Amino acid sequence: MNRALKFFLVSLVVIFCIDQWLKTLFLEGLRWNGDYFSLVLTFNKGVAFSMLSFLDEYLKYIQLILIVGLCSYLIWEKETFIKYAFPAGIIAGAGLSNVFDRFIHGGVVDYLFWHYGFEFAVFNFADVMIDFGVVMILYLSWKSSKKA
Length: 148
Prior knowledge:
The model has no long low-confidence stretch (mean pLDDT about 90). This protein has helices spanning about 1-25, 60-75, 80-105, 125-145, and strands at about 30-35, 35-45, 110-115, 120-125. The chain is built from four helices and four strands; from the N terminus they run αββααββα.
């Protein structure tokens, strides 16, 4: 359990710090326009594709409760926590970084804008890490089901 907790906390802190550092670069003026994607600055008041933005101030508290609840559940379920500590830490660090933005900036700092072929949402490193963490959990679940 101690090893899993270390993996969880280290991955959480590393992802949180990298994401906040990147966001600081954009808050300080970094911009770039390319043919396929651009680096811009936006503040997302909602979740993916600005959904739930009508929740306004309540959204950050709802997300914070969900993250704390998920982490509490994982720590309570020791076997699950040990198995998924690293990807859960990645997801928690990224989620907390986005919630932190809501408290500090009034919305999530987004900066990666894909516009080749079609215009996609503007997103950030934390969003990518949440997706990566989910894919890791799915892979680990699939891998363990093959052994059973």
